[in-house]
Structures are given as structure tokens and as C-alpha cells.
Write a structure and sequence with these properties.
CATH superfamily of the largest domain: Pseudouridine synthase I, catalytic domain, C-terminal subdomain
Distance between the termini: 22 Å
Number of strands: 10
Number of helices: 5
Structural class: alpha+beta
Largest sheet: 10 strands, mixed
Length: about 250
């Protein structure tokens, strides 16, 4: 059975996250319905990352196995013809049978958008976290740098998770100014539940002067979620890219 790899873009505003849930519309369910519509077969797709409710993606990866021997581009064309307007397949590739979108992933890049200004946003209101006060970017970057490396990120992990390995290798955490916006880029081999949003919320508290940059070292050492700051709103977060090894 061929294994198909999809690279997906979606606006997560109207969805209860990636993972299928009873009585709630999810990205996974919408794509599985589309696959069934074009192939007349039920399949279960695997996503590289289980994005939360309201989180967006420009480079989510999913895989599934099928009995259909279609050329790879046919999947992209067929699915885009029936998917909702807020989900699109950017590419479709036939992979080796053993390929698994989640288990084979070697790194993920997330971007979080923040708009620190007094006037609320309109056009981008579903994609940025609006903060009414200015932020100290220099202090935020100093704080971010203390989190780099292979570390125990228990203090930034959301509740109700069955994960038993809190160690992640955070290779990039950059605070960047782009026009009026501040963007935080995070790249790691893996992320814990709510980890990026908890990091962003804590770094923003540094930018607001509520914490010192060095405080994040103490937060890490605490290995306790209550030591970190708020969880940033989901709608500012976007999964940009998933990397795989050779």
C-alpha cells in the first residue's frame, strides 16, 4: 500500500485543533472526510504535530496509507477540489511504506505573532496576539536565550498529558521585529503540549517588565508549570515547517 505525504496549510480559527474529537470539527476529521470523498475509502491520517484549537499552519505534514495507485500530484488536486476553503494541500508525495509523519519528524518550526500597540487589529485579528502596551524586545531576547539547548521543559508543559519525556532540544528561540509586530520563532526537535505558547506568555511578561530575563532560568529549574507565565492565546501561533532526516 502506498504511503502518501501531504504538506498542509490551514486557518485553525474554526477548528478544535488537529486531533479528531467527538462532536467537534477538527482538521484531521476534515481531511479524512475529503480523502474518503475522493477515494471512496476510509483512512486514518497521522499529523506531524497535534496543533491546538485555533492554531494555524503553513507547513503541517500528514501521512496516510492507501490502496489507490495514483500519481502523487493527483492527491493534491483531488483533495483541494473538495476541502473547505480554510484548508489546502500544498504538496503531495508518494513515500516509502515505512514513512510516518509524526515519528519520522526531526524538527519543527513555529512562529508566534504579537502586535504591541494601543489600537486593536482588524484584518489580522485572528492571527496576532494584541497587547496594548509596548514590549522591551531586548529583554525578551535576553530571556529567550536562556532557554536554548537540551533541557527539561516541564515548567512550560500544559496539563492533562501522558507524555513521560520532558526533555526537548530547543535550537532556536528568536525575538524579531517586523514592522509593528514582534515575532517569536521557535525551532526544536520536539515540543511539549502548549510549550511554545507557555514560553511566549512568559517571555512577554519579561517584555512588560513583570519578570527579569534571568528569571526564566529559575522557571526552568522549578520544573513546575505554576512557575512560568500565562499561556499565550492560540490564534497567534502557526506551525511553519516540519523537517525530516535523509
Amino acid at each position: 500500500m502506498p504511503t502518501v505525504k501531504l504538506v498542509l496549510e490551514y486557518d485553525g480559527t474554526c477548528y478544535a485543533g488537529w486531533q479528531r474529537q467527538p462532536d467537534r470539527l477538527t482538521i484531521q476529521e476534515a481531511i479524512e472526510r475529503a480523502i474518503q470523498q475522493v477515494s471512496q475509502a476510509e483512512v486514518s491520517i497521522v499529523g506531524a504535530g497535534r496543533t491546538d484549537s485555533g492554531v494555524h499552519a503553513r507547513g503541517q505534514v500528514a501521512s496516510f496509507r492507501t490502496e489507490l495507485d495514483w500519481p502523487a500530484p493527483n492527491w493534491m488536486r483531488a483533495l483541494n477540489a473538495v476541502l473547505p476553503k480554510d484548508i489546502a494541500v500544498l504538496s503531495s508525495t508518494i513515500m516509502a511504506d515505512r514513512f510516518h509523519a509524526q515519528h519520522d519528524a526531526r524538527g519543527k518550526l513555529y512562529t508566534y505573532r504579537i502586535l504591541p500597540r494601543s489600537t486593536r487589529p482588524t484584518i489580522d485579528r485572528a492571527f496576532v496576539w494584541h497587547i496594548f502596551k509596548p514590549l522591551d524586545e531586548s529583554a525578551m531576547q535576553q530571556a529567550a536565550s536562556t532557554l536554548l539547548g537540551s533541557q527539561d521543559f516541564s515548567s512550560f508543559e500544559g496539563s492533562l498529558t501522558d507524555n513521560d519525556n520532558p526533555i526537548c532540544h530547543l535550537q532556536r528561540l528568536a525575538v524579531l521585529r517586523q514592522g509593528e509586530e514582534i515575532r517569536i520563532e521557535a525551532y526544536a526537535d520536539r515540543f511539549l503540549k502548549h510549550m511554545v505558547r507557555a514560553i511566549v506568555g512568559t517571555v512577554v511578561e519579561v517584555g512588560l517588565g513583570k519578570r527579569t530575563p534571568d528569571n526564566l532560568i529559575e522557571v526552568l529549574r522549578a520544573q513546575d508549570r505554576s512557575a512560568a507565565g500565562q499561556t499565550a492565546p492560540a490564534h497567534g501561533l502557526c506551525l511553519m515547517r516540519v523537517d525530516y532526516g535523509e
